[in-house]
Design brief:
Elements (H helix, E strand, L loop, with lengths): L18 H13 L20 E11 L5 E12 L4 E11 L6 E12 L8 E12 L6 E13 L2 E13 L8 E10 L5 E13 L10 E11 L10 E9 L7 E10 L1
Antiparallel strand pairs: 1-2, 1-12, 2-3, 3-4, 4-5, 5-6, 6-7, 7-8, 8-9, 9-10, 10-11, 11-12
């Protein structure tokens, strides 16, 4: 069997230079702002016990009318057990034509059901609670399976996410979204791949094509150390293009991870 699972160090990285934490904090706060969608990121099913990580995401999206929305997330994650990692996040936002504001507080939990490196795949589960900044918006729950597989030097991810808004007026339906990623691992500082995100509408009766949102595009992954050590901090960036009526025309997303 030629396809072998990649070592766990591909999935998580440990820093050795504390100054990077300050850089990451600046990145997260400067992102400032926006609708959460531009700052969406690929959830991983891989969990490492005892790992502490500062995680910053930022994004900007331009709609088909030329208006821009910004999004930013700043969180701290901790591997509570070998199968459970938890992260607390502040979400900042500025929708098109609105002022920047603290959008919401988020509590993310990821559970890993398989043992890393024993198989060429990992299976996990996401459970996330988001408290909106405006009380009328209530709570948003997000859950779904997280899948990751390896073959030769390639890594693939596919996640299905069910989202439901609670404690708000009316009875909003449970929405269905998805994420995918194809990434090639290699020696050195730079790796590349593709990412995609989408919203299909209610999970049991998808919205019309023109009302759905699908974005996809190339992504790059850069390790911050000159020697390209896999255990150090890294950043990633993706340029995503909308392919459906409700999707933004273009989205630029950034993410930086610094274990400490």
């Amino acid at each position: 069997h030629e396809a072998r699972p990649l070592p766990a160090r591909w999935q998580r990285m440990r820093p050795r230079r504390r100054w990077r934490v300050a850089t990451l904090l600046a990145c997260g706060l400067a992102s400032g702002a926006a609708a959460a969608a531009p700052a969406d990121y690929i959830f991983s099913p891989v969990v490492e016990r005892g790992e502490r990580e500062i995680d910053s995401k930022a994004g900007i999206a331009r709609d088909r009318e030329g208006r821009s929305a910004w999004g930013g997330k700043l969180g701290i994650e901790y591997g509570l057990t070998a199968w459970w990692a938890s992260e607390a996040t502040l979400n900042f936002g500025r929708e098109a034509g609105a002022n920047p504001r603290l959008d919401s507080l988020e509590w993310e939990n990821r559970f890993q059901f398989t043992t890393t490196a024993e198989r060429p795949y990992e299976i996990g589960l996401l459970f996330e609670v988001e408290r909106e900044g405006r009380s009328a918006d209530g709570l948003e729950l997000r859950t779904g399976p997280l899948l990751q597989a390896h073959w030769r030097s390639w890594q693939g991810n596919f996640n299905l996410l069910f989202e439901r808004r609670m404690r708000t007026e009316g009875s909003p339906p449970t929405e269905l979204g998805y994420q995918w990623q194809l990434r090639r691992h290699r020696e050195g500082r730079l790796e590349w791949g593709w990412q995609g995100f989408g919203q299909l509408g209610p999970w049991d009766r998808w919205a019309k094509r023109g009302e759905q949102s699908h974005v996809l595009g190339p992504a790059v992954f850069v390790r911050l150390d000159a020697d390209g050590n896999h255990e150090h901090a890294h950043v990633e960036a993706a340029l995503l293009v909308g392919t459906a009526g409700a999707a933004p025309r273009a989205t630029l997303r950034l993410q930086a991870l610094v274990p400490f």
